[in-house]
Amino acid sequence: MLTIKQITEDTDKVIRGLEKKHFANAKETIAQVLELNNKRKSAQNQLDKNLAEVNATSKTIGALMKDGKKEEAESAKARVAEIKEASKALQLEMDKAAEDLQTLLYTIPNVPYESVPEGNGAEDNVVEKMGGMETELPKDALPHWELAKKYDLIDFDLGVKITGAGFPVYKGKGARLQRALINFFLDEARAAGYEEIMPPTVVNAASGYGTGQLPDKEGQMYHCNLDDLYLIPTAEVPVTNIYRDVILDEKQLPIKNCAYTQCFRREAGSYGKDVRGLNRLHEFSKVELVRIDKPEHSQQSHQEMLDHVEGLLKKLELPYRILRLCGGDISFTAALCFDFEVYSEAQKRWLEVSSVSNFDTYQANRLKCRYRTAEKKTELCHTLNGSALALPRIVAALLENNQTPEGIRIPKALVPYCGFDMID
Predict the structure, then answer these.
(1) pLDDT 10s digits, 273-295
(2) What CA–CA distance (Å, rounded) separates 335 from 341?
(3) What whole-number distance in Å separates Cα of residue 5 and Cα of residue 10?
(4) What stretch or stretches form a coiled coil here (predicted)?
(5) In contact, 136 and 379? CB cutoff 8 Å
């Protein structure tokens, strides 16, 4: 959430940033914010004046009574009662303005950094880097959903029977490959200094608001109505909320956490897109990186996270590219985001496997996540996160890009985790 200070210090910059994200009616919304803030401040100022007058007048009543000036004392009492009654209305006015202001601020996305390119959508993202091994497949190469059936790795129909579309059942070496990837990603994160967390996969609404999934992504989250709880779309939500309403010591930063969880996304509105096989699921496994940092160090943290994800893709021997997302494609909460995509040789398309984002103080302001400097000053933290990695499309690319006439080859880095070097 943007702070009032950020908005008032450079209103034009905020409006330009929101327009870069194609946020509708940016000028009008910011004007509403400023109007509500002025209304809240005006009511607060008058309340302060009223309180001062009540205190001053109340002090005179005793003295007036003592001096026998009963009529003047009664008049002073009446004035105190009148001010208190007026203050009740003012308090209601101030509370309503503050509530409306908070609600409006929740609907405003983060302002992107200057380094975020202009653009309307995915077609305008900038390719920063390409790497990995080129793949040459036989002419009769199969897509992963056919490979999964051929080698009895994943049963999509059984998932439909048990739950519905988008909830596959992994079997045999398919299940072992999932577990191998999870352990590989967690071990790599631990070696890079991340502390492993095993959080709940269900969160309350406060947690959803804290990281910005609510109210923006409410329609994409599975909601347990009876208990007013949400299935998490990513481990970012519970792990980052560990630091909600917390004041950290500067010496604790940067905090580096990683977590494996199942993730749940309704993917509402995705119909008509390429949703075959593992390309778009409602439940999937993911290892997430979360960092809490000082503002002056968050750029370095972001680069370290990018390097970490790139290192994973190199070890998996997959062709990849890194995209700098444009204003029209960057997420609601991010100030800067890079996507990692792997190339599926069988599908002849790029598959997104990770987003690595810097949220600046946007989430921290919602979370009230702060740190205390050496000078005992309290400042907002920066929050960052990134997938390292999401499994479905990694599995799709691994199956497709490593198919041979003898079977599916397992990358060298995964063999110790799988316990086999070939799926046949």
Answers:
(1) 567 899 999 999 999 999 999 99
(2) 20
(3) 9
(4) 26-100
(5) no
